[in-house]
């Protein structure tokens, strides 16, 4: 029985590795923004961290974080296999997130990070972005 679970878990992890970044969550946020009539954002502009979305004029960078890759405190579960590898990997990602945030702030950017699991609270996300871009 436990083998069944670890197999399932392994394939979940593998599909995350194969999946192209967080394309799906980005598409969801793009849809929310469009529905809210928020325009003027660009994707993957060449500024530190290549934010998923950015508003150049207002200097607001928005990142959509996959709960697994960014170690979401609510959702992240360390895979059973290769724990040391995954722990180091995710900690490295979080460290990079913090460093990107610092670099952007020093350049005068406001940084908004949205976790994948929060995307269901569309109103709150839209309000937050609206407020940031004034
Ligand atoms: Zn989460």
Q: Your description of this structure?
A:
The termini are far apart. With 134 residues, the protein is mainly alpha-helical. The chain has one domain: VSR Endonuclease (Endonuclease, Chain A). 49% of the residues lie in helices and 11% in strands. Bound molecules: zinc ion. Residues 67, 72, 74-75, 115-117 line the site of zinc ion.
What's this entry about, in short?
With 134 residues, the chain is mainly α. Helices cover 49% and strands 11% of the residues.
Stated plainly, the CATH topology is called Endonuclease, Chain A
Helix content: 40-55%
Gap from first CA to last CA:
54 Å
CATH architecture: 3-Layer(aba) Sandwich
CATH superfamily: VSR Endonuclease
Class by alpha and beta content: mainly alpha
Q: How many domains make up the coordinates?
A: 1
Beta strands, count: 3
Number of helices: 4
| Low-confidence residue ranges | none
Determine the mean pLDDT. 89
Order of helices and strands: HHEEHEH
Small molecules (ligands, ions, cofactors) in the structure: zinc ion
Give the amount of beta strand, in percent: 5-15%
List keywords for this structure.
134 residues, three-stranded mixed β-sheet, single chain, 11% strand, 49% helix, Endonuclease, Chain A, binds zinc ion
List the helices and strands and how they pair.
Blueprint: H1 2-18, H2 23-35, E1 53-55, E2 60-65, H3 83-106, E3 110-115, H4 122-133
Parallel strand pairs: 2-3
Antiparallel strand pairs: 1-2
Residues 67, 72, 74-75, 115-117 line the site of zinc ion (ZN).
